[in-house]
Amino acid sequence: MPQPHVTPFHHPPSGTWSYVVRDPASRAAALIDPVLDFDMASARTSTLSAMAVLEHVRAYGLDVQWILETHAHADHLSAGDWLRTQLPGAKLAIGEGIRTVQKTFRPIFNLGDHVPTDGAQFDRLFEADARFTIGSLSARVLPVPGHTSDSNAYLIGDALFTGDSLFMPDGGTARCDFPGGDAATLYRSIRRLFALPDATRVFVCHDYGPNGRAVACETTIGAQKADNIHVGGDIDEATFVALREARDATLAMPALLLPAVQTNLRGGALPEPEANGVRYLKLPIDTL
Fold first, then answer.
1. Where are the domains of the chain?
2. Does residue 161 have a pLDDT over 90?
3. Cα gap 58→275, rounded to integer Å
4. 262-265 contacts at long range (C-beta below 8 A, 24 or more positions apart)
5. Architecture of domain 5-255 in this structure
6. Cβ distance 118 to 94 under 8 Å?
7. Distances (CA, A) of 138 to 69, 95, 117, 119, 190
8. Which of these, 144, 134, 182, 181, lies nearest to 166 by C-alpha position?
9. Which pLDDT belongs to residue 114?
10. How confident is the model at residue 41 (pLDDT cuts 50, 70, 90)?
11. Of 12, 28, 188, 190, whose CB neighbour count within 10 A is largest?
12. Mean pLDDT to the nearest integer, 235-246
């Protein structure tokens, strides 16, 4: 099986890993889960992190064909829309479940009909098990709902990009208490991933360095099956659901959920400026 070249980029404020995935036989590439910097206190955006990805692409003369989102993230703003403007020909893609997310959150933020709920903000909506290519690399979309209803993983050659379904083995799994989330569904999604060969490389979307270890982004299906603290070994569905729901009940809302979701359901595009030339995000009071 072809082994794509994978270059990770870490975003410390959100613990996010973004990736440049390159076809070893050409300059074709894809970007996965890029981050737009956002400071909540000042409500200022920055493309500093996205520029690091873009500079890598330009330094190696890569032909970026895809900008892939694993889901509409709640902990960081996506740089997908901005990078699409910098990389002519790159298609911004996400799973077709984004329509459900848009329909769920548009009324919460009272976004109105000017924010469509048909996924039109993206160039491609992937159906379950859709196949596509990155140069000579074959890629497949693997639905992994449970963390959110629109979550997908991408299997590119021998490399699996799990989004928020799996963390590193000592980090466990992602929370399931967002709208559309469900712990039992996540357990079944992960078990389908565990059917892949043990040698499959696994690249996670988040790592927070549990117990003080250095942050990391790469493991394998075999290591996840053996050692994941939430779903590894002989942990059954009922045990996982009880553990996951108990843990979720203790978690605070992500600091950037409100700005992130209303931006990411637009593909990372910020709202249009109002009459005074300023863009505004909404904070629904006493709603979530």
1. 5-255
2. yes
3. 36
4. 262/105, 262/109, 262/111, 263/36, 263/77, 263/78, 264/69, 264/72, 264/73, 264/74, 264/77, 264/78, 265/72, 265/98, 265/101, 265/102, 265/105, 265/106, 265/115, 265/121
5. 4-Layer Sandwich (3.60)
6. no
7. 17, 17, 30, 24, 22
8. 144
9. 86
10. very high
11. 190
12. 98
Token pair listed for 36: 């737009």
Task: Answer whether residue 1 shows pLDDT above 80.
Answer: no
For 178-235, the pLDDT digits (tens) are 989 999 999 999 999 999 999 999 999 999 999 999 999 999 999 999 999 999 999 9
* Alpha-carbon separation of residue 19 from 33, 53, 238 (angstroms): 7, 8, 34
**Token digits for 237?**
């569905």
At which residue do the structure tokens 């699409």 appear?
84
**DSSP states along 15-29:** TEEEEEEE-TTSSEE
Instruction: Return d(Cα 69, Cα 151) in angstroms, integer.
Output: 9
Token pair of 75 as six digits:
């902990």
Which two tokens mark 203?
Answer: 């690249």
Q: Which two tokens stand for residue 283?
A: 């904070």
Would you call 91 helix, strand, or coil by DSSP?
A: strand
Determine the residue type at 81: D
